[in-house]
Amino acid sequence: MAVAQRYMGTKVWKYGIATLSVVLALVITQGLHPTLFPTPLFFAAILISTWFGGMGPGLFAVALATVLLDYFFISSRPGFALHPAALLYLGQFSLPALLSSWFVKKRREAEVALREARDQLELKVEQRTSELRRTNEQLESEINERRRAEEAFHKIQLDLAHLTRVMTLSELATSIAHEVNQPLAAIVTNGDACLRWLGSEPPNVERARDAVARIIHEGRRASEVVKRIRSLSQKATPHRAPLHINELVREMIALLESELARNSVRLKTQLEPDVPPVLGDRVQLQQVVLNLIVNGIEAMSGVKGRPREMQIRTEKLSGEQIQISVKDCGCGLDPEHADDLFEAFVTTKPGGLGMGLSISRTIVEAHGGKLRASRNPDFGATFQFVLPTVEANEA
Amino acid sequence: MSTSDPIVYVIDDDEAVRLAVKDLLESVGMRAETFASGSDFLRAPRADAPSCLILDIRLPGQSGLEFQRSLQAAQIEIPIVFITGHGDIPMTVQAMKAGAVDFLAKPFRDQELLDAIHRAVDRDRARRDAQAGVRELRGRYEELTPREREVMLLVVQGLLNKQIAAELGTSETTVKIHRGQVMRKMLAASLPDLVRMAERLGLPAQKY
C-alpha cells in the first residue's frame, strides 16, 4: 500500500492503471468469449484510464486496446500490421477517450477554480473577521477607558465634595467645639452638684439622682453631636436610602445653632409636617443644607441696622416633589455673578474656594433635582432645591 | 429664706447648662433664677436682694457683651460673672474692662464659680448698702428746713458762723441755733462727719 501511495498521481501510476485496466478487460473478455461481444469492457477500460490518467493514458489505452483486440480477436495471427477492422475500433475507442478526457479536464479545471474561489473566500472571511475583531477590541478598550475616566471623574467629585465638607466643618470648628462643650459643661456642673447633694447632711439622694439623670441625658447629647460631625467628615461611599428631609434639616440646624448665635442670626423654620420621604444619600444632602445655611450666615455677616433673619422652609409640591428653601436677608446676589453662581471656582468670598454651590448643585442634580437661586424683593437671596419623592423614584 | 438672701440670675440659651448651674447653686443653698435670654431677664421682676448675674457670652440675638452694655445704659447695676464655651481673650478683656467680676470658661470648676459668685454678691451687697446709706442720708437732709439747708451748705463750705450770718443777713446767734439743728437732724458727730455726708449727697463744695 505504501508503494501504491508513493506512486499515486504520477505518470507511472496513470499509465499503469491504463495498462492494467486494458489487460484486465482483455482477460475478462477472453474468458467470456464468445458469449460477450469483445468491445464493451475495453470501452470501460479506456474510460477508466482517461478518468484517472487524462488524455495521454487514455490514448495509450486506446492504442493498447486496439492492438490487443486486433491480435486476439480479429487477426488471430502475430504481427504488428493492423487489420482494417481494428482501425475502425481505433476510431471508435478514440472518440470517447478524447471526449471523456476533455470532460475530465474541464471538470478538473472547474474543481480547481472552485477550490481557489473557496480558498480565497475563506481568506477574505478570515481577514474581515480579524479586522472586525480588532475594531471590536478597540471599541471595547475605548469603552473601558471611558468607564475608567467616568469612574475617576466620579471619584474626584466625591473627593471634592468630601474636601469641601471638611473645609466647611473646619470653618465651623469654633461653633462645633461649642456644641460639644455645652453638654460637657452641663455634665461637669451636674456632677459637681450631684456630689454636693450626696455630701450634704443628710444626703439628698433624690436631687442627686436627678442630677445623674441629667448627666446621662447630656452625655447622649454630646455623643449625638460627635456622631453628626463624624458622619459629615467621613469619606463614605454614597448610599441611597429613603430619608426624611425635615429630620435632616433639624440635624443641620442643631449643628449650626451656635454658629447662628455667634453671628446673631435669628432662624425661623417652617417645616411642613408631612413632607414625603426622598431617596437620597444622607451625608450628601446634609452637605447641601449645610452649605446653604452657612452661605446665608456669611451673606448676612455685613448686615447692620436690621435683624439678621434666616428662614428655612420645607414643603410638598405637586408632582411628587418636595422643596427646601433657605432665605436670608443678606447682601443678595451680585448681578455680575448671578449667572455663574454655580460654576466651580466662582466665589465672592475672600477665603472661599468657590466649590460649595457647584458641589451642591451637582449633588442635587445627581438626585434628580434642581437647585436655584433668586433675589428677594427686599433684601438678600433665596436658595431652593427640589427633590423627587420616593414614590416618584419608584414610578 | 428671707428676701435679703442673695439671689443669682443665670442667663444661658442652653437649657441644660442653665439647669445644671441652678442645681449646683441650690445644692449649696443659694437661690437661683434662670433665663434663656437677656430680654427674658429684663421682663422678669427682680427681687430686692443682693444679687449677681451669670451670663453666657454667646447668646442668640444679642451677645452677652452687648447685653452687658445695654444693662449699663439702662443703669441696671448688677455684678456679672461671664461664662463662655471657649476662652476668647479679646472678649475676656472687653468684659473685664466693662466691669465684669470674673470670666469662666466652660466647663468650670464648681468652686471657681461659687467663689466668683460670692465676690459678685459681696460687691452688690456693698453697693446696695452704700445706696441704702445715701438714701437714708437724703431722707434726713429732706427733713431740714430751707434755711437749715442754706446754713448746712455754707458750713460744709468752711465758712465761719460770723460769715454765714453776714451771708444770710441774720445774727450769729440764729446761725448757731440753725447749725445745732442741722448737726442734730443729720446725726452728724462732728464737722468733718457733716462734710462727708454733704459729699455723699453731692452738695457743691463751693458756692460758686
SS strand fraction of chain B: 5-15%
What is the fold-level CATH name, i.e. the topology of the largest domain in chain B? Rossmann fold
Task: Order the strands across the largest sheet of chain B as they lie in space.
Answer: 2-1-3-4-5
Sequence of secondary-structure elements of chain B:
EHEHEHEHEHHHHH
Low-confidence runs of chain A (pLDDT<50, min 5 residues)? none
CATH fold type of the largest domain in chain A: Heat Shock Protein 90
In CATH, the homologous superfamily of the largest domain in chain A goes by the name Histidine kinase-like ATPase, C-terminal domain
CATH architecture of the largest domain in chain A: 2-Layer Sandwich
The oligomeric state is heterodimer
Strand order of the largest sheet of chain A: 2-4-5-7-6
Question: Would you write up a description of this structure?
Answer:
The complex is a heterodimer of chains A (395) and B (208). Chain A is α+β, with helices and mostly antiparallel strands and 395 residues long. Chain A folds into three domains: 2-124, no CATH class; 172-231; 242-395, Histidine kinase-like ATPase, C-terminal domain (Heat Shock Protein 90, 2-Layer Sandwich), CATH 3.30.565. Helix content of chain A is 66%, strand content 12%. Chain A has eleven helices and seven strands. A five-stranded mixed beta sheet of chain A has the order 2-4-5-7-6. Chain A has a two-stranded antiparallel ribbon with strand order 1-3. In chain A, helix 2 runs parallel beside helix 4, helix 3 packs antiparallel against helix 4 and helix 3 (39-53) runs parallel beside helix 5. The longest helix of chain A has 88 residues, at 84-171. The two termini of chain A are 80 Å apart. Chain B has 208 residues and is an alpha/beta fold. Chain B has two domains: 7-135, Rossmann fold (3-Layer(aba) Sandwich); 144-201, Winged helix-like DNA-binding domain superfamily/Winged helix DNA-binding domain (Arc Repressor Mutant, subunit A, Orthogonal Bundle). Helix content of chain B is 56%, strand content 12%. Chain B has helices at residues 15-27, 38-43, 64-73, 89-97, 110-143, 146-156, 161-168, 172-185, 191-201; strands spanning 7-11, 31-35, 51-56, 80-84, 102-105. Chain B has a five-stranded parallel beta sheet, sandwiched between helices. Chain B is elongated. The termini of chain B are far apart. Classes of the chains: A alpha+beta (395), B alpha/beta (208).
